[in-house]
From TrEMBL:
It comes from the Bacteria. The keyword Signal applies. Keywords: Signal. Residues 1-19 form the signal peptide. It comes from Lacrimispora defluvii. This is VCBS repeat-containing protein. The keyword Signal applies. InterPro entries: Integrin_alpha_N (IPR028994).
Length: 225
């Protein structure tokens, strides 16, 4: 008798569940409103300042290599090479990142200052080294490296004591460097740019430009270096 009652109750419950499922169209699987609200992310509102520097940087990026130096006449007619560097980094800590744009021939660094775009540096290897083979950013320094049979050539860029600073050094002249336009030694250069401590995880890869896709629309969050 108890067994029959159990089977009867099980049948009723089964039929009721099927009926409910058919009437609700499977809504029992839907998350409640609180779960839905947690999954929906509100778009991040940009400040006027962010809109301004992003717009200015977009214009430079879309112009490609039109503003990049070509000191040794190595760049083709298209300007910026198909493989290029692109990133942003706040060197001076003012809350507005600088734009880093270039390729294996030269790198330019831009900032947004006083409601306008300003180029703060053109960086390229000194004569005799020519090409940029590696690009690093660490310790708030941008380091260009050219690999040669006699060692490496280095170009450094950073910000300190209220101004942007550049320097060059190469292994073929181990006792000499140029720091902010003044002849200096290796120690002084290395104390600023730390080239003996370059890490592989600080090396920045080249990006591939696809001309068929039209203008590049950068994801700024992915470009922070």
């Amino acid at each position: 008798m108890n067994k029959n009652i159990f089977l009867f109750c099980f049948l009723i419950l089964s039929l009721t569940g099927c009926a409910d499922s058919s009437m609700t169209g499977g809504t029992v699987l839907q998350p409640d409103e609180s779960q839905v609200s947690n999954m929906v992310q509100e778009p991040v509102a940009l400040t006027d300042e962010e809109i301004n520097w992003q717009t200015a940087y977009m214009e430079i990026i879309h112009q490609g290599g039109g503003h990049l130096p070509d000191p040794y006449h190595l760049r083709g007619e298209d300007g910026l090479n198909s493989s290029f560097y692109l990133g942003i980094h706040d060197f001076n800590g003012d809350g507005i990142p600088e734009l880093i744009l270039g390729d294996g021939i030269s790198i330019s660094v831009y900032t947004y200052l006083n409601h306008g775009l300003e180029k703060v540096a053109d960086l390229y290897e000194p004569k005799g080294w020519y090409m940029i083979h590696e690009l690093y950013i660490q310790n708030n320094c941008l380091i260009l490296v050219s690999n040669g049979t006699d060692g490496c050539g280095y170009v450094g860029f950073t910000y300190g004591e209220g101004s942007y600073l550049t320097g060059t050094y190469n292994d073929s002249s181990p006792d000499q460097s140029v720091l902010d336009g003044e002849v200096s030694g290796f120690k002084e250069f290395n104390d600023v740019f730390h080239i003996t401590e370059l890490r592989e995880d600080s090396r920045k890869p080249l990006r591939k430009r696809n001309k068929e896709r039209g203008e590049l629309i950068p994801d700024w969050a992915m470009l922070v270096w």
